[in-house]
Each structure stands twice: as structure tokens, then as C-alpha cells.
Amino acid sequence: GAVVSQHPSRVICKSGTSVKIECRSLDFQATTMFWYRQFPKKSLMLMATSNEGSKATYEQGVEKDKFLINHASLTLSTLTVTSAHPEDSSFYICSARDPGADTQYFGPGTRLTVL
Amino acid sequence: GEDVEQSLFLSVREGDSSVINCTYTDSSSTYLYWYKQEPGAGLQLLTYIFSNMDMKQDQRLTVLLNKKDKHLSLRIADTQTGDSAIYFCAELDQAGTALIFGKGTTLSVSS
Fold first, then answer.
1. How do the pLDDT tens digits run along chain A, 115 residues long?
2. With contact defined as beta carbons under 8 Å apart, do A23 and A71 qualify?
3. Do A106 and B44 touch (CB under 8 A)?
4. Quick check: A42 contacting B, CB < 8 Å?
5. Do A43 and B33 touch (CB under 8 A)?
6. Over the range B14-46, which residues count as b (16 or more CB within 10 Å of their CB) and which as e?
7. Considering Cα of B69, then B66, then B49, then A39, what sign does the dihedral take?
């Protein structure tokens, strides 16, 4: 099946620094990518929808200035957590929509720990 | 708004069948999905069903859809210890693009 990669898989940073997470679709072109956040023992929460070449659409309650999303190409979307704080520590998962299969494929996730 | 509900835990013995249930609210959902998440890993698409189907079978997996009751179930036959994971059901949102997830059912398989 289709593969979506994320990098890095795990990152630890100091409070106040910014962290960039990359999401790549490896064998299909994804016009739409999604960023989810997963809290411990809870479900996935959709943060934003990223469309190639346009601004991301953020869900209610998600700060667009804090979680910067860039979808510069059909195979790459990035999420930058700016001025990270301990409460931003979480598991961030991206997904990419394969229009040919009309389904979403998920990346392996990035574990962010902010000290 | 859309909402997806699942029971949180299921415990079975190896070799038994597991049935994970899910209810959803958006009757216009065209696709419903089951994902599996192993510890520390991302999500793996297990199977999906189109809303005009009642049942879909894929090897050990059987998905049943009751559209009238907005009820979806996943049956795993001959459950193995390797099936231990969290299982999420999801529906497409009203825009037909993003996925709305349930909280996940933790399946524990004992030998």
C-alpha cells in the first residue's frame, strides 16, 4: 500500500524553541494532507487540513500562529510548532489523501517532548 | 457536529473472535474506516466500507454496517496476540475530506 513518512520520529526540545515536522507521501501525489494530534489515551484530534499551494484550514481552537503548516509540494507538508511549551508535548500524526484510492494513509507519527 | 463513539476496552482469549463496535452520527458519511494502532506507532488502515454496503470481508476481518442504526462493527476471527492494539473507527466528515475518529478500543488478547 501507499506509504507516508514522517520525520523526525521523536524529538525532544527545550521550551521556547521551534520544531519542524515533515510529512511525505512516498509513492503518490497528495493534494491534501492532514495533521492530527493525539493525547495520551485519547483519540486523534484533527488540527488542520493542508492543501498544496494554498493556506491551511485550521480546526476551531487550534492556533494558526503556533502551528505553522506549509504544503509546498504535492509530496511534502510541514508542521512547525513555534515557541514550543511543555503542554505542546504530544504525538503528532500526519495523513495524506491519495485521490486515486480515495483514502487516507497515515504517517508513523512524531513524538514531541518539550522540556 | 459529527461524533464517533466506541467502547474503550475489549479483552479476549487467543483463538476467540473479537467484535469491536462503533456508532457514528453523520448519516451522510460515504466511507467508514477501521484503523489499527500498535504501541508507539502510527495508524494502519485495516479496512474500509462504502456506505451502500452491509458487509465486507477481508481474510480474518469482517465489517458489518447497519446504516439505519449508524452502527459499524469489526469482527476479527481467530484473534491472535499480535492483534493486540488500539482500534479506531472513523467516518469522513461532512466535507468529505477529513476523518473523524472515535476514542479507540484497546484490544487485549491473552494466550
1. 568 999 998 999 999 999 999 999 998 888 889 999 987 666 788 899 988 888 899 988 999 999 999 988 899 999 999 999 999 999 999 998 877 766 778 888 899 999 9
2. no
3. yes
4. yes
5. no
6. eeeebebbbbbebeebebbbbbbbeeebbbebb
7. positive
CA angle B5, B88, B39 (to 5 degrees): 135
Q: For residue B61, what is its C-alpha cell? A: 476481518
**Chain A: closest CA distance from residue B103 (Å):** 4
Residues in chain A within 8 Å Cβ distance of B35 = 106
Question: Which of A32, A33, A43, A93 is the best residue to mutate to test the B interface, defined by the most B CB atoms within 10 Å of its own CB?
Answer: A43
Residues B102 and B5 sit within 8 Å (Cβ to Cβ): yes
CA angle B19, B70, B99 (to 5 degrees): 85
